[in-house]
Description:
Elements: H1 10-26, E1 31-33, E2 36-37, H2 41-57, E3 62-63, H3 64-70, H4 76-88, E4 92-94, E5 103-106, H5 108-123, H6 126-141, H7 147-173, H8 176-181, H9 189-206, H10 211-239, H11 250-259, H12 262-267, H13 283-292, H14 323-336, E6 341-343, H15 344-350, H16 354-368, E7 375-385, E8 393-401
Antiparallel strand pairs: 1-2, 3-5, 4-5, 6-8, 7-8
Helix pairs in contact: 1-5, 6-9, 7-10, 9-10, 11-13, 14-16, 15-16
Amino acid sequence: MLQTDQAITLDSALSEEAVLATYRRMFAALARDSGAVVDDPVLVDIAETLFAAFAEAGEEWLTHEQMRYACRDHPADLFENRLRVLRGLGAIREVFPKPNQLRYRASFTSVVGLMFVRRMMDDGGQSEMHRLLALEDLNVADPRTTMEEARQSAHNLARAFRLWALELITLTMGTIEELREQAPKLWGTEEIARRAQSLHGTILTRWPELDRTCTELRAAIYSYSDASRRAAGRLADSAGTTRNLTLLPSETWRTFAQTASKERLAAVLDGLVFDAPAPWHDPAAIVRAVDESPRPALAQPTPPRSALPDPGPEGSYDAGGGPAADRLTAVAEEALAGRDSVALQELLGAAGDWVSARRLLADLAAVDLRPELPYRLRWSDELTASPEAEPTWLTHGRLERTTP
């Protein structure tokens, strides 16, 4: 006889049976029979069709013939199998428990369970975690919440974050294909961590006695944040500099080369015609070449700007001249030789060589750029070319003295 430490009472038996009944109704849509889950999406479609038909029927409920008509697009044997399973697990029950009952009703728990599963399929549990954190935040802020309830809430969240972090670590260490398939689990991780840290702060502020429990929660949150960043980093690295996750990364080609048969490898070149047989490449050499290929460099972040005001070069410019202005004035006066205007081609031609002409032209250009000096360069469209002279070509222009 089975020995237990606690006596089995009627209340405990009823409580356990209520828990099992709730689980049965919640996951009835995913049950193939009493001991296995569905392996055909059509079976889930039949359950969704039946629940939609019950919602439209309202208080009239549905008979067996009406349920069959709602699922008329599915084979009769599949419909009967699903109806038998849903009735056995309590997802569809008689309206009133009496003999010869003809009308049936759907369980609200089963509909909610199917909606929950659909959301889990869409984003891998992200939305459920947001909802859970929002509800827990409201619960711990409620004045009626006790310390034990807060302790249990923090313990459950710590366990969830640790399991989530372990799953992300496994994805990071696995194949890139699996990581890309589970990419929705990485969306919004910073927001989840922020809300969890806010919840942790609320619990620790209201109940300082829970510091040990809050420490475990904080460690689990940090572990989840680190794991999500590593997984996102590998996912971004696999996308390359284009950040396009629709392109196949090099790891996919390496996995294909390691696992594909000779026939599949040869099928890559089907339909191609070559003038000569292609050279044989050892698969190990291909894998080694892929491993040794350069990795795309990560973009360097822009360094942060200082919050202090920057006056810039204001006040550093001396409009009064100086040694440089005096030297440029002497160059301009020497070029003009007492005149008000002189041709540039005359000055540059008299320099004798290109090095001297270039230095003179640079000084005259500097004179023109100094607004405080009374000299300007006026250029024209004429050009003189002389292959035997130096410089070999000259652009026409004039150095003029301006009136102050």
